Amino acid sequence: MRVLISILFSLTLLELFIGGGGRVFEFGTITLRIALFVINIILTTILYIKRGRIEGYVLVISITFILISIFYGFLGLFNGASLFLIIEDVKPLSYFLSIIFISYYIREYKDVGVVVSLIKKSSFFMAILYLIIQILFFSGKLNFVWFYSFVNIGISSSDFMFRGTEGLFFYKGFMYMVLGLIFWIHSPKSNSKSLAILILTMAMILTGTRGLILMFGLLYALFYGIPLLLRLNIKMLVLASVLVFGSIFFFAKNDIGDKKLSDSTRIEQLAQVFDDVNFTSFFIGHGFGIGVPIRPVHMEIGYLEVFHKQGILGLCIWGTLFAYLYITYRKSDNDNYLRKPFLLGFLFVILLSSTNPYFNNPLGISMFMIGLASLKVLNKTNAESVNRL
Transmembrane stretches, by residue range (predicted)? Predict the structure, then answer.
């Protein structure tokens, strides 16, 4: 049984880390992500019942999600939302229930090691594959029109966004590519570390995605502070230089699409959301299933969507989760090198969600739940180590 669980756990993680928005591995109307989600929930629920014990934080997160979904679902119905749109809002948030199987799978220090190893390897794989594709475009070996059609028809039309017509594109799974870069940066010294960091940094810049690059830079500027950043070792200084000057050169010399259109769309969303604000919605929102004319379902700015549908109360609920993640990180003084990248990963998703909806969909939620379960294990491991001394 343990072997089966290990295989299922690794498959679930790999699908999350490289599967983008979940539509890449799709079979008819069923995605691999949904299938794994259902299988994992059923299996681990049975195993928890058999064990007769479940962690308190798992119950709190699961029950809180269910109660919030019921409340905001009924609020949406009261305000005239269709059941279909309410379900569309609840579906991505239902990944909070993944804590049920994630907490079961991540129980020992070696399980955390598996998580980190898969994040690093899958991110490196994505970076290498993306750079190979760009080399093929640059050398004329790959036709843009053919590749564009293949990606949108044969893989997923919702997971890729092309930057102009020169072959540059953004893939939703690139969030985990940058998270992998964070874990590589804070991994122990090795022969492959510097090469991996260089390749991942190049791939990140070549995506032409301002949000990824700027939020990655802002993350380290905020976490370390500019004075401390300048005192870091030479490799970090080289990385910072490559990131800054490479990005400036890249954005100046290449066609990365119409950014004015995406910016104006976000501004229009802001205007429409604030036009709809009333006394009640300011505090509790309009409910699930209630959008705005330009975005009837989901919005590019995740926090704006939460405010519109859940009000200040919803933002406070998310803020409570973020605070709990930080408290869990600070709960132990364990200086294990695995701890810091999980915290930076949380912060990166939170920052990135100011321009893209990551924190409130399976990609961001999975990072929160995986990181939370991992930190719980690392805290426990530290406590047990102290007790043995």
Answer: 29-49, 56-75, 81-106, 127-148, 168-185, 197-226, 232-252, 273-292, 312-329, 341-359
- DSSP reduced 3-state for 273: helix
Cα angle value 28/33/38 (rounded, 5°)? 100
Q: What is the pLDDT of residues 322-333, one digit of tens each?
A: 999 999 998 877
Return the HEC string of 3-21.
Answer: HHHHHHHHHHHHHHHHCCC
Instruction: Round to whole Å and give the CA distance between 288 and 82.
Output: 9
- CB neighbour class for 62 (10 Å; exposed up to 12, middle 13-18, buried from 19): middle
Radius of gyration of the chain (CA): 21
- Residue 362 phi/psi, 5° resolution? -55, -30
Tokens of 168: 């540059």
pLDDT in tens, 303-312: 999 999 999 9
Closest CA to 353 of 365, 335, 371, 343: 365
pTM of structure: 0.89
Q: Which two tokens stand for residue 345?
A: 């990963």
pLDDT per residue over 114-134, tens digit each?
999 999 999 999 999 999 999
Give dist(CA 45, CA 48) in Å, integer.
Answer: 5
Distance CA 304, CA 267 (A): 11
The strand pairing partners of 30, in sequence order, are 27
Q: Please report the beta strands in the chain, taking only residues with DSSP state E, as ranges in sequence order.
A: 26-27, 30-31, 160-163, 168-171
